[in-house]
Automatic annotation (TrEMBL):
This is DUF2147 domain-containing protein. PANTHER family: BLL6627 PROTEIN (PTHR36919:SF2), BLR1215 PROTEIN (PTHR36919). Residues 1-20 form the signal peptide. The keyword Signal applies. Gene3D superfamilies: 2.40.128.520. Residues 25-125 form the DUF2147 domain. Pfam families: DUF2147.
């Protein structure tokens, strides 16, 4: 009986990392209005969210009140690297858009949309 419990505990422990959402981690945005950010994705309840963890301009890392603010929230994983149902904030315009994302390896294609018109960026994985 002890072996069965130990085997079950080991199986659960090994399954945990395999079930981690692939988009979790840190991503570098494209330059927008002369600056870019590192966005850290994590689980936020049943959804995924991304918080600005660092900001940069042409001279390097900068201090900004946007650090720690959510850039992406309510994002739902749909499988096969597709995400939808979220919102994304564009700091340079202070506008919020409906958002969707597509993950392919170390590239994350992010779109913020109003109706059929979308602004798109390609982000790259930092960690």
């Amino acid at each position: 009986m002890k072996r069965v419990i130990a085997a079950a505990a080991l199986a659960v422990g090994l399954a945990g990392p395999a079930m981690a959402e692939p988009v979790l981690g840190v991503w570098k945005t494209q330059v927008d209005d002369g600056a870019y950010a590192h966005v850290t994705f994590s689980q936020c309840g049943a959804a995924l969210c991304g918080v600005i963890s660092k900001a940069f301009d042409a001279s390097g890392e900068i201090s900004t009140p946007n650090i720690g603010k959510q850039l992406v929230w309510d994002m739902q994983a749909n499988g096969n690297g597709k995400y939808s149902g979220g919102k994304i904030w564009q700091p340079s315009t202070d506008k919020v858009y409906k958002s969707k994302m597509t993950l392919s390896g170390s590239t994350l294609k992010v779109a913020g949309c109003v109706g059929p018109i979308c602004k798109k960026q390609t982000w790259s994985r930092v960690q």
